[in-house]
Design a protein that fits this description.
The complex is a heterodimer.
Chain A (H helix, E strand, L loop, with lengths): L1 H5 L3 H25 L8 H20 L3 H7 L27 H30 L9 H35 L8 H20 L24 H28 L12 H33 L12 H18 L2 H15 L6 H14 L18 H10 L1 H15 L8 H24 L1 H7 L3 H31 L5 H27 L14 H31 L31 E2 L14 E2 L3 H4 L17
Antiparallel strand pairs in A: 1-2
Helix pairs in contact in A: 2-3, 5-6, 5-7, 5-19, 6-7, 6-8, 6-17, 7-8, 8-9, 9-10, 9-11, 9-12, 11-14, 11-15, 11-17, 12-14, 15-17, 15-18, 17-18, 18-19
Chain B lengths: L1 H14 L14 H30 L13 H26 L3 H28 L8 H32 L9 H26 L1
Helix pairs in contact in B: 2-5, 2-6, 3-4, 3-6, 4-5, 5-6
The chains are: A mainly alpha, B mainly alpha.
């Protein structure tokens, strides 16, 4: 037992959580006693400090810091023996592991877990909204439901699931054995379940109920449940920054010989751009939540208007992160779709360089549009028109991408299987969401529909029809590589069509009730919206159930699906040239890249060349020799 | 054949204490690049706090300085000099280790740590004697917010410096290999430069 408590793992983590609780109690009591406050033991202060301390104690206990502690003390560090590298049984996914392939799967599975919780929360909301009046939950609980729904799906699903897919694929795509900082990578992952557990745990004390935007001074005057968001976001944000930094360093310093930036697959470009956004923008949400925490916990006056605080400052700081965040939630999806459309249409991607440059243009323009979320906030009038213009302009690089994808499909030989269906579904739904987005940029219109269901419809068209469809596409596309098994194609297609149809039945009517004036974030509504809302609620049940098809397909295929070949899609990018799943260090020898990644249908085109294993005397069985491109079509 | 390849596999596994080296596609040291990117995100955190500062002071149009918030400019100026001199001693430590001068390395890094600790001590002393609190008004809030944020970064930097000090005294670092000194060093220089901006904005402007 003593051994188990000393070694990193769940026993030690549990013990450390206990220590963290005691530490928080000791610290708050000592400070309160020293400053003469009564009573010495205060529940809320204890909880607040515990929310910060316990996760840190947990991370130490589970073993994220062991190596660094030894290193910092100048002790001989255990050389990276990689006994923890790779997963040999399902138990290895519940330990700190430095293998990017294990971490990638940990990320994806964890974030899907939170997708299902967030989706279930949405089901409760739709049940409440099926009829006017109050049926299931009261107003404050309803506020809590939509807040937890949005916070989970944004911070614990869409952002990390893309990081997870990229974690798995990017080192393989660029010919690297792992990420640049494998231990930091493990730490970034383990902060996620912490943040997610915290947000879900807010239901124990009454969930945070100020929306995922947590506008001050509403958030600084809420019950203690609000702090589960304020602090949880810090952990999710720190995780996101650490991963982004890791991606940037990996992509810049670890590319295979010959893999210049303009030979990178667009998924790598997309994550490069996303990581730039994360590193630059995410600190702003961290700061905004620090302000709220200080106001709430220590009585600071950032947002108390009676003491010269500035309330609108919160919105400016928050949206300076959260507008770029919508591109953080979209650009990796652009990358996934670029991979799939080129492979499944058997054609080179159209306008490769413009695709890369448009990503960078979105990164730059993304920082110039934040105040379009504040058109009705009472900010200075002169900011409105410039923000309207930049918002309209940012549709141009996005439009370049849409037209390039269409041109990629043009006269291609389309293989309409599940990943392709989801990619095409993304293309149509995201275009619709983008069009309503441009409409929303227009001042006269947006003032009319602000805070109505039109906004709800728009964000679900871009985040569900856009981002989630690309996530599904990516998961189906790389499933054979990740698990070494094929998924069930028929179930995949059924999943797509149920999702696609029910998604539209659920969210398209929201445009209509929104324009007619139904406000969002309210648990009740007038009689005139009743029939549409009933239809939406019924459709949303089927939409929710459609994910069960996905879960069944993934689990049963992972356990007992047919074995996948190394390259079932006949793709050129490097990750498909190694076995499925890839060997423990990805490549026995670093490949050399001699051409572009999308030369489908170009006779004689080669992307990566692998050193002849026989010549090097390496284990010959592990790898296919050089990649002769499969004949296109 | 199979047995042979299995034996070979075991051999390969014994030799491998880590992934095979990746191709280095950039001349930049990965640790240094990582630290620079981290510093960019730190700059943005400060940017958000400066945004708050100017929103409260200029956009909000609060009375400035608020009554009873006179700041000890001279003492903080001396403190600034102390912090800046720690950058010089840190550079001396780096120059020493490059020249193989271990005594200079130890003296330089120890001196840097002590100067940093002195800065933090004087700042806490200033907090105690200021005569206004963050709870009084937004002007006080943003003073403690910005200087406190910087103080927290000094603390992080000090923890890094203590690690480097311990490792220096344990005989780590050599003429060829001293990234473990240089990377935390860059962070310390960043903390110093950021203090110049914070000091100028809060105490002088």
């Amino acid at each position: 037992m003593a051994m188990k408590l000393r070694a990193p793992g769940w026993y030690r983590a549990t013990a450390f959580v206990g220590l963290g609780v005691l530490f928080a109690l000791g610290l708050t009591s000592a400070v309160r006693a020293a400053s003469g406050l009564d009573p010495v033991i205060a529940g809320e202060a204890w909880l607040l400090v515990g929310l910060i301390a316990v996760p840190l104690f947990f991370l130490v206990g589970i073993g994220c810091f062991d190596y660094w502690f030894r290193w910092a003390a100048g002790k001989p560090t255990v050389p990276e023996d990689h006994s923890s590298h790779g997963a040999h049984s399902w138990r290895d996914y519940f330990r700190v592991n430095t293998d990017h392939k294990v971490i990638g799967i940990q990320y994806v599975v964890t974030s899907f877990f939170f997708l299902f919780i967030g989706g279930a929360v949405a089901m409760i909301m739709r049940a409440e909204l099926a009829q006017p009046g109050t049926q299931i939950v009261d107003g404050q609980t309803f506020n809590g439901l939509f807040s937890v729904h949005a916070a989970l799906l944004i911070f614990l699903f869409i952002i990390p699931v893309f990081a997870g897919l990229a974690n798995y694929v990017i080192p393989l795509m660029i010919g690297a054995p792992d990420m640049a900082f494998p231990r930091l990578n493990a730490l970034s992952f383990w902060m996620l379940p912490v943040a997610g557990t915290m947000m879900v745990a807010s239901f124990l004390v009454g969930p945070f109920a100020s929306g995922w935007t947590a506008y001050a001074p509403l958030s600084t005057t809420q019950p203690i449940g609000q702090m589960f968001f304020t602090i949880g976001v810090q952990f999710a944000g720190a995780s996101s920054i650490a991963t982004a930094l890791n991606f940037l360093v990996t992509i810049i310093t670890m590319r295979a010989p010959g893999l210049s930036f303009f030979r990178l697959p667009l998924l790598v470009w997309a994550n490069f751009s996303t990581s730039l956004l994360v590193v630059i923008a995410t600190p702003f949400i961290a700061a905004s939540q620090f302000f709220v925490l200080l106001d709430y916990g220590l009585g600071f006056n950032f947002f108390s208007a009676s003491r010269n605080g500035d309330v609108l400052m919160y919105q400016h700081v928050f949206w300076f992160y959260s507008h770029p965040a919508v591109y953080i939630m979209m650009l990796p999806g652009f990358g996934i779709v670029s991979e799939i459309l080129a492979v499944k249409a058997r054609k080179p991607i159209f306008g490769y360089r413009m695709m890369a440059f448009s990503l960078l243009a979105i990164v730059v323009l993304g920082f110039t549009v934040w105040a379009h979320h504040m058109f009705v906030s009472g900010m200075q009038d002169w900011i409105r028109v410039p923000m309207m213009v930049t918002t309209a302009i940012i549709a141009v690089p996005t439009g370049i991408k849409i037209f390039s994808w269409l041109a990629t499909l043009w006269r291609g030989v389309l293989h309409i299987d599940t990943p392709m269906l989801f990619a095409l579904g993304f293309l149509t739904m995201f275009t619709l969401g983008g069009i309503s987005g441009v409409a929303l940029a227009m001042l006269p219109f947006v003032i009319h529909v602000s805070d109505s269901y039109f906004i709800v419809a728009h964000i679900h068209y871009v985040l569900f029809g856009g981002s989630l469809f690309t996530v599904y596409a990516g998961v189906y596309y790389w499933f054979p590589k990740m698990t070494g098994r094929m998924y069930d194609e028929t179930l995949g297609k059924v999943h797509f069509w149920v999702t696609f149809i029910m998604f539209n039945v659920t969210f398209a009517p929201m445009h209509l009730v929104g324009i007619e004036g139904m406000p969002r974030r309210v648990s009740d509504y007038p009689e005139q919206f009743a029939s549409w809302n009933l239809a939406i609620s019924v459709a949303s049940i089927f939409l929710g159930l459609s994910t069960l098809i996905f879960v069944y397909n993934m689990v049963s295929s992972w356990v007992g699906g047919p074995k996948a070949t190394a390259n079932p899609w006949r793709a050129l990018t490097l990750e498909w040239q190694v076995s499925s799943p890839p060997p423990i260090f990805n490549f026995d020898a670093v490949p050399t890249v001699v051409g572009g990644p999308y030369e489908y249908g170009v006779p004689g085109a080669v992307h990566g060349v692998f050193p002849d294993p026989d010549k090097d005397g390496a284990d010959a069985a592990k790898q296919q020799p050089a990649t002769t491109p499969s004949v296109a079509q | 054949m199979e047995a042979a390849s299995a034996a070979q596999g075991a051999l390969v596994h014994d030799e491998h204490h880590g992934p095979p080296p990746a191709n280095r596609s950039s001349a930049v040291e990965p640790q240094m690049l990582g630290m620079l990117l981290f510093i960019i995100s730190e700059v943005m955190v400060f940017g958000a706090f400066f945004a708050a500062y100017f929103f409260i002071r200029i956009v909000g149009g609060a009375e400035w300085p608020a009554q009873g918030t006179e700041l000890p400019v001279a003492i903080a100026g001396v403190n600034t000099a102390i912090l800046l001199s720690s950058s010089l001693t840190l550079h001396w430590a780096l120059v020493s280790v490059r020249a193989g001068n271990r005594a200079g390395l130890k003296a330089g890094i120890l001196l840097t740590t002590l100067l940093g600790a002195t800065f933090l001590f004087i700042q806490i002393n200033e907090y105690v004697h200021l005569g206004f609190a963050a709870q009084d008004h937004a002007q006080g809030t943003i003073f403690f917010g910005l200087t406190g944020l910087h103080g927290a970064h000094v603390l992080i930097g000090l923890v890094l410096l203590i690690m480097v000090t311990v490792r220096s005294f344990r005989g780590h670092f050599s003429e060829k290999s001293h990234w473990g000194l240089e990377v935390p060093g860059i962070y310390w220089h960043f903390v110093d430069v950021m203090w110049i901006i914070v000091y100028t904005t809060i105490y002088i402007l």
